[in-house]
């Protein structure tokens, strides 16, 4: 819902039929395309990115999405030995508000083909990128899919410009084969086709593989999901079921509503052979768990034991961090794997099994990462450091290793080890999930607690979570909050711990 900082690009149409987008310092006006733009001058194109150095084309400028209404139909792959390819068809109804006088804007969409676009009910016609210049008049859209450059954009020109502050409804119909997309480090993410459905996890910018989106955590929105899958399959998204599933002619439609603003990477619509169970915590928070019927017996036992602890974990973290930030919680545990778990909002996704420490980690992310999200991807340690630190606390609470011992373990790593060469507050797009982001990040928080004392640390934590609730914030914001809470200048502390690629001297 909050917009990212503006960063402007110019569209350059190349002769071989691909457009490249080059950062420029000036506003990229689309020029005079005749009237019909609501009167008054100064209409221009929204930027094709949110301004994040790590993923320049993730997110978009010029507008702010408030709601995604997603109507999806998914056919999982045929049984072995057919290829692992499914089919997804969708209609996304996007409510947005222009943050500038807007006569052209982008959405992110990867590997799907757009078949229809309308803005406020007015259809745009598809044109080829080379024709996407001022010579084409009227409502239009085009797609750029450049896998090598990792540029995936739908550009939309409404018939009528959208004035700054005005709301618009954009409807995009699209579809395509679903594959097994990978992130910049070659980890599976996005709409990951599995034999029995799909694991859907979008961090950092994989959500664009399943619907047109402004795919950056600075643009949070609420979501409604209508997901139609073959009868017998269960589709699980964020939030709560808004009405019972309905079966007709061999297809079942699942309805989910996620009323808390969420970052795009935290959306899920995972499909599989899940049993759904619903309970409530003592304070009445709904817990919805979706557990694959085909877990191995050992994984099933591990998962059941871990998920049974969710209410206690929520109590424990609420005592430390303040009340649980959303209207529901729970888990999606798939018998397939993407190689990791993700803290999808209100409903983390687990691969193969849910271990206790992982459940604590993904739950802690609901406060740190989900409610308060990174302002830019360089700030990822604010997610992973906190989730790791919180798990240290949970483990200690459970009578396991003390947080001090966990800290000592990190500080026992030899100063010559490459572990210490990561700049934690700027690990690079391929370093988002390296050990140092997690463990040195957690050690930073432990050391901060030591330095400023328990009362200031708790006050800073609550101030952080209150001030940036349902929003995003940076490492600089974090330092400022803890300086306020402690009354200390912490610049040397944060320089040492997260901005210098050298082991801190204890
Ligand atoms: N954010 C996840 C977690 O820590 C981890 C994650 C997301 C990840 N994408 C990844 C880990 C890719 C390794 C590779 O809960
Ligand atoms: Zn994590």
From TrEMBL:
One of its GO terms (molecular function) is metallopeptidase activity. This is Aminopeptidase N. It is an enzyme of class 3 (hydrolase). Its cofactor is Zn(2+). It catalyses: Release of an N-terminal amino acid, Xaa-|-Yaa- from a peptide, amide or arylamide. Xaa is preferably Ala, but may be most amino acids including Pro (slow action). When a terminal hydrophobic residue is followed by a prolyl residue, the two may be released as an intact Xaa-Pro dipeptide. Residues 1-28 form the signal peptide. Residues 66-266 form the Aminopeptidase N-like N-terminal domain. GO terms for biological process: proteolysis. The lineage of its organism: Bacteria, Bacillati, Actinomycetota, Actinomycetes, Nakamurellales. Its EC number is 3.4.11.2. Belongs to the peptidase M1 family. It comes from Nakamurella multipartita (strain ATCC 700099 / DSM 44233 / CIP 104796 / JCM 9543 / NBRC 105858 / Y-104). CDD domains: M1_APN_like (cd09603).
């Amino acid at each position: 819902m909050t917009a990212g900082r503006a960063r402007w690009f110019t569209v350059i149409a190349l002769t071989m039929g691909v457009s490249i987008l080059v950062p420029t310092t000036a506003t990229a006006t689309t020029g005079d395309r005749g009237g019909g733009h609501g009167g008054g001058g100064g209409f221009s194109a929204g930027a094709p990115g949110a301004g994040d150095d790590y993923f320049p084309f993730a997110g978009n400028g010029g507008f702010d999405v408030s709601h995604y209404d997603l109507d999806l139909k998914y056919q999982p792959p045929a049984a072995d030995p057919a290829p692992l390819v499914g089919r997804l068809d969708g209609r996304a109804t996007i409510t947005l508000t222009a943050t500038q006088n807007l006569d052209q804007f982008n959405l992110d969409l990867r590997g799907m083909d757009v078949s229809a676009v309308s803005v406020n009910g007015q259809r745009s016609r598809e044109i080829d990128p080379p024709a996407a210049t001022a010579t084409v008049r009227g409502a239009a859209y085009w797609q750029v899919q450049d896998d090598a450059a990792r540029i995936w954009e739908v550009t939309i020109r409404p018939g009528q410009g959208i004035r700054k502050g005005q709301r618009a409804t954009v409807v995009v119909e699209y579809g395509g084969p679903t594959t097994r997309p990978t992130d910049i480090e070659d980890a599976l993410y996005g709409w990951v086709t599995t034999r029995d459905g799909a694991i859907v996890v979008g961090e950092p910018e994989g959500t664009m593989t399943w619907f047109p989106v402004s795919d950056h955590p600075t643009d949070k929105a609420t979501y409604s999901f209508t997901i139609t899958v073959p009868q017998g399959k269960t589709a699980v998204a964020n939030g709560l079921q808004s009405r019972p599933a309905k079966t007709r002619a061999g297809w079942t439609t699942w309805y989910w509503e996620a009323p808390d603003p969420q970052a795009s990477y935290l959306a899920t619509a995972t499909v599989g052979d899940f049993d759904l169970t619903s309970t409530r915590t003592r304070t009445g928070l709904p817990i919805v768990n979706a557990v694959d019927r085909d877990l191995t017996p050992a994984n099933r036992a591990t998962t059941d034991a871990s998920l049974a602890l969710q209410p206690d974990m929520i109590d424990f973290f609420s005592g430390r961090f303040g009340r649980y930030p959303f209207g529901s919680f729970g888990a999606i545990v798939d018998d397939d794997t993407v190689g990791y778990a993700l803290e999808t909002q209100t409903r983390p996704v687990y691969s193969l099994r849910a271990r206790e420490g992982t459940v604590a980690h993904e739950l802690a992310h609901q406060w740190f990462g989900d409610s308060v999200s990174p302002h830019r991807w360089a700030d990822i340690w604010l997610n992973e450091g906190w989730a790791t630190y919180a798990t240290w606390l949970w483990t200690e609470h459970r009578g396991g290793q003390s947080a001090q011992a966990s800290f000592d373990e990190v500080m026992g790593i030899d100063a010559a080890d490459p572990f210490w060469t990561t700049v934690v507050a700027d690990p690079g797009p391929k370093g988002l999930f390296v050990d140092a982001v997690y463990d040195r990040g957690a050690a930073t928080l432990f050391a901060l607690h030591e330095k400023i004392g328990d009362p200031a640390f708790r006050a800073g934590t609550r101030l952080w979570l209150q001030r940036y609730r349902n929003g995003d914030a940076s490492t600089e914001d974090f330092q400022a909050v803890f300086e306020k809470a402690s009354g200390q200048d912490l610049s040397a502390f944060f320089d040492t711990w997260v901005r210098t690629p050298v082991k801190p001297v204890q």
